[in-house]
Amino acid sequence: MPELTPEHLERIHREPADDIPKILAAINTIKPRQYVCYRTCGPITIDGRLDEPSWKKAPWTDLFVHIEDDQKIPPLATRAKMLWDDDYFYVAADLEDPDIWGVETQRDAHIPDPDFEVFIDPDGDALNYMEMEMNALNTVWDLLLDEVYQRRAPDPDWNPTAWDWEGIKTAVQIDGSLNAPWVVDKGWTVEIAFDWKSMAPQCIGVSCPPQHGVQWRVNISRVNRNRERTLTDCDWVWSRQGIYNMHVPEMYGYVQFSETVVGKGYEPFEERE
């Protein structure tokens, strides 16, 4: 389990009083998931197809789980892969979905549709972490959070959406039809390239691009909304948060970067306390 500094604990205790016991219990009882991220074995084209040799060789994560409750099994399968090279950190995912839909097309607007989300905290201090959301229309909303929403002092000028994740590349492929509820779809895939240069200012005390063996805190989420937006309890994640809140970076999974080229060898995840 991650060791929390007194400063870190002090920030957690700014959370709503009812949430603090849940957060501390999650930190003490849930082991974040782990993933070894290998180097690509060739160029990656961001088109959502995941048909390059690198993607075919990269391991899938375990299936996503319910964000909070280990007794609730998501009815639709979601899984992801990760890779990296000198220029980008790549994330791809496969989302089972019998009814693929989306309406939001404006960049940096709140996405009310089913979406896919990535959260990255390079140095694991729960400060200056990045969030990216996208829907099946490939509409992107990105944010930079200098601190968790609930832990900040009130500030009317604070606008995490003002930050743009420059250099990001995203793509979606639909296996079925989009916005056609009379058709039973199979699902959609997403493919993202996060530019190291855009993340470097947030990599305080860690290398960017990362060096061999470096571990970053990352979590990946899927929110499965219905058209009427009445569906609740539908947040599924790679690494369980233990509380219905993605903005608890202490619970993000661990991604360990390896200089090993994907498909050329196996590297175990290194447990660290």
Short structural summary:
By secondary structure, the protein is mainly beta. It is built from 4 helices and 12 strands; from the N terminus they run ααβαββββββββαβββ.
Q: How many H/I helices? A: 4
**What does the overall shape look like?**
globular
CA-atom Rg in angstroms: 18 Å
- Taking the alpha carbons of the first and last residues, their distance comes to 7 Å
Structural class: mainly beta
CATH architectural category: Sandwich
CATH level 1 name: Mainly Beta
**Can you tell me the CATH topology?**
Immunoglobulin-like
Number of strands: 12
- Content of β-strand: 25-35%
Give the topology string: H per helix, E per strand.
HHEHEEEEEEEEHEEE
Q: Which bin fits the share of residues in helices?
A: under 10%
Poorly predicted residue ranges: none
Major pleated sheet: 12 strands, mixed
Which whole number gives the mean pLDDT?
A: 93
Number of domains: 1
Textual characterization of the structure:
The chain has 273 residues and is mainly β. Strands 1, 2, 3, 4, 5, 6, 7, 8, 9, 10, 11 and 12 form a 12-stranded mixed β-sheet that branches. The chain contains 4 helices and 12 strands; from the N terminus they run H-H-E-H-E-E-E-E-E-E-E-E-H-E-E-E. The chain has a single domain, classed as Immunoglobulin-like. A hairpin with a 7-residue loop joins strand 5 and strand 6. The termini are close together. 10% of the residues lie in helices and 30% in strands.
